[in-house]
Design goal:
heterotrimer, A mainly alpha, B mainly alpha, C alpha/beta, B: mainly alpha, ABC transporter involved in vitamin B12 uptake, BtuC, two-stranded antiparallel ribbon, two-stranded antiparallel sheet, C: alpha/beta, six-stranded mixed sheet, globular
Amino acid sequence: MLGGLYAIFAAGLSLIFGVMKIVSLSYGAFAVLAAFLALHFTQATGWPPVLALLVVVPVMAAFGWALQRFVLQRTLGTSALPSILVTFGIAIIIENVLLITESADQKRMSLGWIDTAALDLGLIRLGVYPLGLFVLSLVLLGILAWVMAKTQFGRAVRAISEDAPTVELLGIRPKMIYAWAGAIALALAAIGGVASGIQTSFSPTSGGMLLIFAFEAVIIGGIGSLWGTFLGALVLGVAQTVGANYFPSQGILIGHIVFLIFLAFMPQGLSGKVKRS
Amino acid sequence: MTMTRPELSPVKVTRWTRTSKFGTPGVLLVFVIMFALPFMTALSNIRPVTDLLVFIILGSMWNLMAGYGGMESVGQQAYIGLGAYGLVVLADQVGVNIFLAVPLAGLIAGVIAFLISFLAFRLTGGYFAIGTWVIAEVVKLIITQFPSLGLGSGISLYAMSAFERDLRIAVSYWIALGVTLVALLICVLLVRSGFGLGLTAVRDDPTAAATSGVDVSRAKRLVFVISGIGTGMAGAIIAISTLTVQPDSLFSVQWSVLMIFMVVIGGVGTLEGPIIGAIIFWGLREALADYGSLYLILLGIIAIAFALFFRGGVWGLIQRRRRFSVFPTGYATSFGRST
Amino acid sequence: MTLVVNELSAGYGQLTALRNVSFSVEGGEILAIIGANGAGKSTLLKTIAGQLRAFTGSVVLDGEDVTSLSASARARRGILMVPEGRRLFPSLTVKENLQLGTSTGRKGDWNLDSVCELFPLVAERLNRVAGQMSGGEQQATAIARALVGNPEIIMLDEISLGLAPAIVVEFYDRLGEITRRGTSVILVEQDVKRALSVADQVHCLLEGQTSLTGRNLDFADIAAAYFGTGHR
């Protein structure tokens, strides 16, 4: 049931990569940053991590807004190199700042009894927390998909990624729209980061793997499709879990291999929306 | 009716500019001096210079792929590891002469690069970047499965124990110097050739290049493989120099961080740029190595600043003052006499 | 409303494509900009719309100088352009394209229903994906998308390009409906006769400069100005 967690992560990445067509290698690092912020918050206030979200998410969203508006917006252009460089640079900075301010070892947040609670459904035991994440991911993705499909904002984002100058002719300011989209994406990263921090341990260097998982989910599911990303996350989660069952401690590798198989034989992903090569 | 043709003096176009006529011999002179280095200074100074040479190789190879080929890979560490492992296997387990083992290790890396290219090329731009990173992770995970390769802790190189310590350091250095020379030579020749021209066309506009007759995927694949070979040889040198192969270190994405930063800060898409970037990075590392994370943060800030404001890197800034090139890859025209 | 263009010059990099063009348009008027390929007609529209920065000169709408405003700011003030090549958003449906048109936030007679009345072609295809329509359908949608924004002045860049004459006639017939409500129209056209049949004013461009301007002009004079022949 890792799928739910990955789905939340991948949703934000899908929005940035697929719809906004921006390369963000800093996505994982931001998720980890959010996890640390939440950790400190819970340690400082004694409140449960879920409430920490109320603070962390707006903070990260604001950061995402500013980052997009003032930094990433400048990297848009014909070559992907500037955005790769800038976002990679940001990821390195965040990772190392965390390494300095925190120790390098693993941390974890806890929700108390929920951590190990499980539903006994006869054949299988479903962890309550993963189940909750799964439901949450459905809800979040549903909301995001609705926003993209039915609101003026969502339409604007889709239009901008196709033809920004013409969007301007209609009276919309692309920079503003993209800034808000950046905020949403980082808010999702924050939720994913905190959720991950509760489920498994994390450290300043966890950002890389998180990014990779989110990316794999997006590719398996198909770039540009939010529901595809959801499916992709599920597939990845299942691959890793089942893989770990048969080849102990190789779950991640199995996940990678499944990703590569999809890349080789179904590069347009499950949703088949965009032709890749 | 006869047509009279105006007498046109033939124009010669050469790749040697005024400055590269001094620059290239200058570089060769530097190489000669560097060859003599182990005789001139303490051996403790040689190790860092070997590292610098490795950086130059890595930077040039990444630049070849990204700056000229338009492929920004974040997964070149795969070939560093493959080259290193390849060298140890060839030298220790197969018993190949160490000098031969280096290019062979590079070739091994190149073959794997060739195979990987079929997967990786299904992606472009940022997706390609992360995709190559994933593939590098997979390579590492697969290699560390084999007990004969030391699983997760890696293996040590014994073939160098034939040399006593001082000579070993010098030999590692000379090998590195040789490979650097070859790598730069390959870069110069490639860029000068018609292939290089086609490559620049692909980088600028793949569709236009394709319609002009450039076989886009073949060109990209060739560059990708060459870059893999060069990067693999760098990995082999690292193995020789440090005597061990540690998967967590060699397959780390930090190598890609290094390569990208060197090229960006030095100047992407030029031959001189990565060399400058390597020197800068190396200098910073020597000066700030004790500061660990802080120095990486500084590096990150510098790279972002360059990516946003100085797209041409340091070499680009220099070029703004006076256009000159060190290598014979510029253009100069001269007018000959009509016969 | 009055739109005044004064000594406008613009271009691309070092190329000056437009030089010292001046004219004014009143409410409900139709101004036709004619000229050969490359004369600068599209450049003119783009500069008025704000997609292109003017080198010199000014664009004044109802007394307000909009020359330094962005394209989106000008759109919100009522300067709307239907660009060359339609430029619909291909993966969005017709309805979604129209809905985006309302982003100007301007109130007026035009809304989804009224433009659908004017263009039955559009009304029948509201849920069609824009990229999968014919040229005529796309053109109608593009014009409707601009109208829905309730422009003070709507600029049409070569709407007859690539369309069957019968469809073009239908578009031109509707121009009257647009101007009847006080909206002005600037029309860029290669088809001179068509343009003249509806225009109140004509402005002819030759190599970026005004070669002839006025009302009720003689066709022979226009031809001379268009081709750059005649007394100069």
